[in-house]
Write a structure and sequence with these properties.
This protein has 100 residues and is an alpha+beta fold. The chain contains 2 helices and 2 strands, in the order ββαα. Helix content is 61%, strand content 12%. It starts with a strand and ends with a helix.
Length: 100
Amino acid sequence: MVVRRGVLRLDTPTRDGDTEMAILTNLATSVADAKMVADLYRRRWTVESLFARVERNLQGELLSLSSVTPEKSRTQFEKLIVEAVRRTRFLVSTFVDRMT
């Protein structure tokens, strides 16, 4: 497998103060040039951040499930899933709006 390494120069330093970021990819240059690889990487981390936000937002609800009876737990879990879908749709629509 051939792997390419690209270095991004960041407009804003990371929270650790880094001004460059190295990215490895196995995508051939005929499939994705350096700019496309950087854009895909940025989008990937936007999605990763989105899921991290959903997970943080739901953590309290997940912890509360452990302290109820099985019947109540099932009802609460169903409500949790509905709320997770609602929040995820909102966050995804926000993400899509930012990307377009």
